[in-house]
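2024-03-11 09:14:02 INFO receiving multi-entity request
2024-03-11 09:14:02 INFO entity count = four
2024-03-11 09:14:03 INFO echoing inputs for audit
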Amino acid sequence: MNKILKIVVIGGGSSYTPELIEGLINRYEELPVGELWLVDIEDGHEKVQIISELAKRMIKNKGLCIEVKVTLDRRLALEGADFVCSQFRAGCLDARIRDERISLKYGMIGQETNGLGGFANACRTIPITLEICKEMEELCPDAWLLNFTNPSGMVTEAVLKYTNVKAIGLCNVPVIMEKGIAQIIGADEGDFVMQVAGLNHLIWARKILHNGTDKLSIVMDEILKGNDPLIPSNIPPFNWPQDLLKDMGMIPCAYLRYYYTSDDIMQQEQEEAEGEGTRGEVVKAMEKRLFDIYKNPELAEKPKELEKRGGQYYSEAACELMSSIYNDKRKIMHVNTRNNGTISGLPDDCVVEVSSIITKNGPLPLNVDPFPCDTLRLIQLMKEFETLTVEAAVKGDLVAAKRGLILNPIVNTGTILDEALKETVKENLDYMPQFRWMFEKS
Amino acid sequence: MNKILKIVVIGGGSSYTPELIEGLINRYEELPVGELWLVDIEDGHEKVQIISELAKRMIKNKGLCIEVKVTLDRRLALEGADFVCSQFRAGCLDARIRDERISLKYGMIGQETNGLGGFANACRTIPITLEICKEMEELCPDAWLLNFTNPSGMVTEAVLKYTNVKAIGLCNVPVIMEKGIAQIIGADEGDFVMQVAGLNHLIWARKILHNGTDKLSIVMDEILKGNDPLIPSNIPPFNWPQDLLKDMGMIPCAYLRYYYTSDDIMQQEQEEAEGEGTRGEVVKAMEKRLFDIYKNPELAEKPKELEKRGGQYYSEAACELMSSIYNDKRKIMHVNTRNNGTISGLPDDCVVEVSSIITKNGPLPLNVDPFPCDTLRLIQLMKEFETLTVEAAVKGDLVAAKRGLILNPIVNTGTILDEALKETVKENLDYMPQFRWMFEKS
Amino acid sequence: MNKILKIVVIGGGSSYTPELIEGLINRYEELPVGELWLVDIEDGHEKVQIISELAKRMIKNKGLCIEVKVTLDRRLALEGADFVCSQFRAGCLDARIRDERISLKYGMIGQETNGLGGFANACRTIPITLEICKEMEELCPDAWLLNFTNPSGMVTEAVLKYTNVKAIGLCNVPVIMEKGIAQIIGADEGDFVMQVAGLNHLIWARKILHNGTDKLSIVMDEILKGNDPLIPSNIPPFNWPQDLLKDMGMIPCAYLRYYYTSDDIMQQEQEEAEGEGTRGEVVKAMEKRLFDIYKNPELAEKPKELEKRGGQYYSEAACELMSSIYNDKRKIMHVNTRNNGTISGLPDDCVVEVSSIITKNGPLPLNVDPFPCDTLRLIQLMKEFETLTVEAAVKGDLVAAKRGLILNPIVNTGTILDEALKETVKENLDYMPQFRWMFEKS
Amino acid sequence: MNKILKIVVIGGGSSYTPELIEGLINRYEELPVGELWLVDIEDGHEKVQIISELAKRMIKNKGLCIEVKVTLDRRLALEGADFVCSQFRAGCLDARIRDERISLKYGMIGQETNGLGGFANACRTIPITLEICKEMEELCPDAWLLNFTNPSGMVTEAVLKYTNVKAIGLCNVPVIMEKGIAQIIGADEGDFVMQVAGLNHLIWARKILHNGTDKLSIVMDEILKGNDPLIPSNIPPFNWPQDLLKDMGMIPCAYLRYYYTSDDIMQQEQEEAEGEGTRGEVVKAMEKRLFDIYKNPELAEKPKELEKRGGQYYSEAACELMSSIYNDKRKIMHVNTRNNGTISGLPDDCVVEVSSIITKNGPLPLNVDPFPCDTLRLIQLMKEFETLTVEAAVKGDLVAAKRGLILNPIVNTGTILDEALKETVKENLDYMPQFRWMFEKS
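2024-03-11 09:21:47 INFO inference complete, emitting structure
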């Protein structure tokens, strides 16, 4: 692999892409990218053009030579690729907003990776991802797929179960946790080892090894004081149950608030929905502003405003991951990969999010100490939701969907679920061909 | 054990007792009861007297000689007992009503064996039960404890984990299912084998073996038609999600409605609470009427009205269990006992509700075929709730309580749970000495 | 199934058959057999004729009317059968003797269900059994297969894994244990519950429930005194390691001597081989004598001499099993059936030998309490040997065979195993078509 | 820990020590050793003096300043130590020779970490090691114990189960495998990742990651050609069963020959015992020669002859491990540590030998992909042997010893085991105080 690398970005018109460009520019010496292909769909043509122009200006500004190409022809882009970054959003932000609003209408938390919204997102995204993978098997069988399309854990599980593509799922949550911890313990990145484990958006930091001691309790004390730099800046403030955390011996990621403080979050979401708008709506407005900024022909670097967007460090993580693979760096990163016994009590073939050594052959997960039984039960429950959702998304199996959703703690069951599910599928029918039978029948 | 048997009833003043008397009368030939001791507390003295008089009339009416004794001195009763039936209610129906009302106030389903109410009931009941067991270890170490005090599964787990008493937990749910199935398939009891498995109030019929075929699908078809004699008469009508059940390959007990139709049940409970009253309130009124009937000096048999009470067949099951043990009958009954691998995926030392052969040495559980993974996850989750609740009840450990409640699908979490939990403990402080530290501290 | 039953015996010319006839005669009232088909192969024609004549005399003697038919046409016999008893011996006793002699030649214990001999027997027997099952699927799909062809556990596993036939494996070892226990504790059969668990020829009695107490330690004391009626009469005396048994808390079956006293048994076998002959040779001579007795036209009952043959109670068990199924007796018997979690730590789809309630729908295993870890390890090891041997027998996979044999504690490994294995296959090539490739290649 | 380090060597008079000295000299820059304490017992005084003089010459020769101290007072040495290297041999080589001869006398393979010899060695070594650990808890509670005293896996398990000492077990087997693999694939150490897993002397290389591909099959091909640099030079040549290895998908360590070629090894050992002597006897002669060389006052470096000794790279590994801990190197090394789910199917609290990242906080094991079932069964069996042996060694429990030995594939059972065990204990009574009760009683 000493040739110049070809990198393909599916969903190249995403507002995150400038961070990715910046990451590639910063690693130009260690990661010799020759071509960067931005792929998007018809509807995203304008946005991907804006991104492409900005990318070119950013690269030129640094005096580097990475060729930036834009295309709507995915096969053309994939041919001979070395790395494929998947960051598309099926149905765009409108679909996310619809998910949120439907969930709220039926009294449930609306969220793009969990609950009813997570189900909808998975059902829209997985079929397209599998299509991409079939093309990869043909056109670039040795390429790595770096998935950060949400729901990242379920999408990666679908790829690893149903295709032969070498895939790794990524998320910015552990990256933000790591940076927050660095700040609390006053250490440089790489100076300490944070080990996380769980599922995507359902992880706990299990160890924080620094200079011969485990600093977990120091970090916990800081969090309990309300000083919590581990929480992504786009998440509104909330309170952990203090006694619970004190007793836990591990640091939950911010998304655990859906389980530990479900009612508070429900109320918060309802207030937001009636006020500034749902998270999707806020992001949509933000994106509009971002693209206005990106259009500026004077702009030749990643603008500050992107940091508020929420996906912070996603692309940074992707670039670091590509470099770690390419250079066999054996850095510890936190990725979604096949379980294979890493977390005891989960099937071998499911996908988990765990700290791993990144090699040229892919991730080698660190072993995870057994979880306390109650935490394990939550992980097992949510993994079963995910696995049934993947099955439903691949096969169009409504009963599998329902069996999964019934387990999910943030989903209401009964008549209301039947109705919410029907509405979800109906409103998304353009993106869920696997469920068209439901409406053909009736 | 060829002597005449001594049977002790803790909570002898219960409105159920006449069914128990009837059961003993019907089995007089096979189960030679010499003395029946009805034990109650000061507050229940009047009720236990009424029951005792009725019992004596019933026995005399049949010309039998069982001595009926009433006492408030539990140790006196326990000395040399052969069977101890536990059917008391700590805090009486008022406590149950309080549980229901607090749960509803905080937007949660109110229920005496599950959720916040189940937690409260366990915390009131388990300390007293362990006290009784300590006395049994001293005064009647060979006696069997037949527990049908709710929450029956958790109470039995506490006894088996923390004492040396030989205990079996009982519930009328499987009995009613068996009778309903007999009706559907047109078979006599004992003619077919129904195998159930799960936890107390969380069981599924796994097999219905009759004349060489498994009649499960026949029973399921009937249930899906809305003809469901497996549901206790005291439970108001509700609808199972049809497609879910069709796909399930096993018959859920009625209490599974809390998981499969949570929102419908929540609404139903709220309507009841605003209308005829909560279940506890309805039962309280019913009990009052029952005791008026029991007082009638002409009455010398179990009155028809008792059947509407809800606990139907409880006492019947208890009598049959005593006879099965005494006579080494090896009948298949459905009991709460130590898991020991019966249900794969649960700890050996937890208590499960499973079909078992009843011998003079106690129950020998039938092996349970592996559960589908999603159902297993629900069972594991609820068992963890139960185990943490038992721990909380025994040790007064509030964090254990919270860790358990957070897992429970019918419990809301966050600020609301903190408040609901605090109110629950405060209102029950007379019955929850283990949690007094919470209010001493502050 | 109120018609008159058709029973088929594969290997009808076996010297055991008179016991089977006696068993059917004794159960004539409860098990209405109309036709008894004795099937054998060309080489066994004379013997099956002798048996058939004896059977007819025995039936006539009692004035019953069971039609006895002899055939070499298996399909004719199987058509419409209700029960198929499999008790054939592929390669006859000569094959068994060859197995024993080859094993001994290479310094290994020679045995028909274990080690190299067990491997050879499985590879001869399983292909024929699967052939029979294919015919059963076509000609009598509702019939039960009662297998007591050795190695019974592996043969039953092959049937349950590779066919749709309803099969139960039987062995006389637990029957003899039960009778020995009855003698020690002075109880009638059916009066107590003996629970065994493990694999075929690798079981332990785990519970001996009698009149409200577990008599296991009483039985153990008697065994340690050297008074051991649990050991089949055909097994020469040997000594259990006393301290090991005292500590064990369960009663091992006689075949466990291969693991607990391997060297003693090896020496015993070598002495026998140089003296009176191997077990197979002794049996062969005995059989010759038996058939001389059977020929006697005056003989109209099972002769006493059969009892020394070794397979005592096999056929008795088979008759009782047929009756238990036919009459839905729900008797506790000890059978080889699908594990399904009965013994924790073994795969669901493997076959185990466990005490079960026999119903018209087949066996319902009693749950088995967790084994001590060291015993479990031995069971897991031997089950893996069995599973790999079944795979080798079905697929002709020599590496699977070797992987299995290497695990087996009574097998020597290395050059010697390669040679012993090659000789075994070569000498049995007529009965092991699946391994012919080995000699075609070279 | 920026002070100058104090390193203690228990068994400082070992012939290996010069390699350790060389390792410390080579790492002087990264591992600032101030004091090196060589501890030995009275009987080893002369040898430790010789070693000490040689060490001083070696250090002086390089112009470094590490203070070398000799003492028989262990407590003095341990006080304030940073690293404690345990490499003593309880009973010296004479005990090892005795073990070998007793095993052979009873027809069993004689080996210092396995079978009867492994049991004897564990029972001599573990009590002393626990004594050392008690002293470490008091005198240097923060020190790391690096154990390479055999049987290294069992000794480390004893320490981690029964003390609070931070301990890591080491072996040279994986080091030699890694060097052999480097040679075959033509890569530098550190350039590729070899992942091993199993138990001490029972490991398999599972992955050989080099430049983006797994070179395992390339290495396997070379081994099958008979070119096997992975086998320690002190092990006489033997043949792997070719078809078995081809099928295995992982590379067994040389000690697996005891299981895969047991009979060949038995014969080899018997021939050696009758010829050049047992391994222990050969080593004893070699050691004598080595000490003659060490005495030479001109000698100021590790002599070439040491390489033939067999323990090659042991001390090298120890030095590298100390440096990895001290410098938080996060190098992948292969160590004995607590399982905690690393190998699925083994208890959490047992010790396994697995590739781990070495941090200042100790080893972080890499997750191990599930083993094929037959290999897992062997590992589980041998771990149970080890765990029971540790229990026997700590408690003097003879039945535990026997239960463990009966499982061990290289142990004969029955009368012969009783005798061999009795002789073993009797001959070692000076070193096995825990078993003195056996001879007091009789």
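2024-03-11 09:21:48 INFO post-check: Residues 385 and 404 of chain B are 4 Å apart (CA to CA).
2024-03-11 09:21:48 INFO post-check: The radius of gyration of chain B is 21 Å.
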